[in-house]
Design a protein that fits this description.
mainly alpha
Length: 194
């Protein structure tokens, strides 16, 4: 898992944290072969060198968050909501920056757990020989070039444009859906016995 896949996993982990706190624990998994886990840990040390992990995550998080911020600011009605109020715009900017910083902090703090989980995932899916082959590839010039470039994929102009389009389409009906939700909630409260 590299670049876009790692970013998606990290964002899903953060986005799903509230759900994970209340979700039932998964059924007990079969014990993993310690040799496979050890091989996977060595692979991840090549794919995501420990001394570079924080910088690599920053390279994924910051461009995505900046893109998300830009998409939000281009959302229909967003500028109307803030109007020409410089204080409101400044407050929104501080709020968005705080959320970005918190996401980065959460991901940094959760990095050891994510790497351990990824090692177990690799160990579950690949045997020792396969993991060694994967590691061998990442130690080749082509593999090293791929690793060096993969974290920049999320900041590629085409990927950023796709993200903005996806966010715009997904946010197109949020105001309408929120109005429906509020109406449904009000109707439900009104129908309760007094």
């Amino acid at each position: 898992m590299r670049g876009p896949a790692l970013a998606a996993a990290a964002l899903l982990a953060v986005a799903g944290s509230a759900h994970a706190q209340t979700a039932p624990a998964p059924a007990a998994q079969a014990a993993l072969d310690p040799a496979r886990v050890a091989a996977a840990q060595r692979l991840l040390a090549v794919m995501m060198p420990p001394e570079q992990r924080a910088r690599l995550m920053e390279g994924i998080i910051r461009p995505m968050m900046a893109n998300m911020r830009q998409s939000l600011q281009q959302m229909p009605g967003f500028t109307d909501m803030l109007g020409k109020d410089a204080k409101a715009a400044s407050a929104m900017e501080r709020f968005l920056q705080k959320q970005e910083d918190r996401m980065a902090e959460t991901l940094h703090a959760g990095m050891p757990g994510m790497v351990d989980a990824m090692a177990r995932a690799y160990a579950r899916r690949f045997d020792v020989a396969q993991i060694a082959d994967i590691r061998t590839f990442f130690e080749t010039p082509a593999g090293k070039a791929y690793l060096a470039a993969s974290y920049t994929i999320m900041s590629d102009p085409d990927v950023l444009a796709w993200q903005r389009d996806l966010m715009s389409r997904s946010m197109a009906h949020v105001q309408e859906d929120m109005a429906t939700f509020v109406a449904d909630l009000s109707a439900s409260k009104a129908a309760e016995p007094k």
